[in-house]
Write a structure and sequence with these properties.
This protein is mostly helical. The protein has one domain. The chain contains 6 helices and no strands. Helix 2 crosses helix 6. The longest helix has 36 residues.
């Protein structure tokens, strides 16, 4: 898959922006809260009651904000033992199938998260210990899932082009391997 084709587009820039939120805001905040809680718990024998809730939310947001860039950079795991023996066309069709399976999950997550936002807002649902509104977390998860959906659509388009391409018919029976 040509990652450079995705890197030139706006979809990649959205994924990169979410990665930057993760790298420059969420991870440092997560590390700070964990250090603060460990210090309070073991030095002062007074654990922070809200730290567990906050670190759980930060961990979730860190994870979902990293998925779009990981997907855009083709950082997912494959069974390379099988994949490297496939022809270029067959590997492209496998990529299309994998992207379709990923789309099923990310579309469901996007829709469910965005449907939860108004409900959480109307009810005023919040975290128990830190009073963070759940609608903010649901909106962030939905945005990250939407970005992943867009990345998967872009990847699928590139894989379909490769699968339907007439260029490599001469080398069709040659396995391409993973370099």
């Amino acid at each position: 898959m040509s990652v450079t084709a995705l890197e030139k587009g706006w979809i990649y820039q959205i994924a990169l922006g979410l990665q930057n939120i993760c790298a420059f805001f969420l991870l440092p905040l997560l590390a700070f809260i964990v250090c603060l809680d460990v210090t309070a718990r073991y030095v002062f024998n007074n654990p922070l009651s809200w730290a567990s809730d906050l670190t759980t939310i930060l961990l979730l947001c860190t994870f979902v904000s990293a998925i779009p860039i990981c997907t855009a950079q083709d950082g997912h795991i494959r069974v390379e033992t099988f994949y490297e023996d496939y022809t270029q066309r067959k590997s492209a069709w496998i990529d299309v199938l994998g992207d379709l399976m990923g789309l099923f999950f990310t579309v469901l997550l996007t829709v469910r998260s965005y449907l939860d936002v108004p409900r959480f807002f109307a009810r005023g649902e919040r975290s128990d210990m830190i009073n963070i509104p759940h609608w903010i977390v649901a909106a962030f998860v939905g945005t990250c899932a939407l970005a992943t959906t867009l990345v998967l659509l872009g990847r699928m388009q590139l894989a379909l082009r490769r699968a339907l391409s007439k260029e490599d018919l001469a080398n069709e029976n040659q396995p391409h391997g993973l370099n």
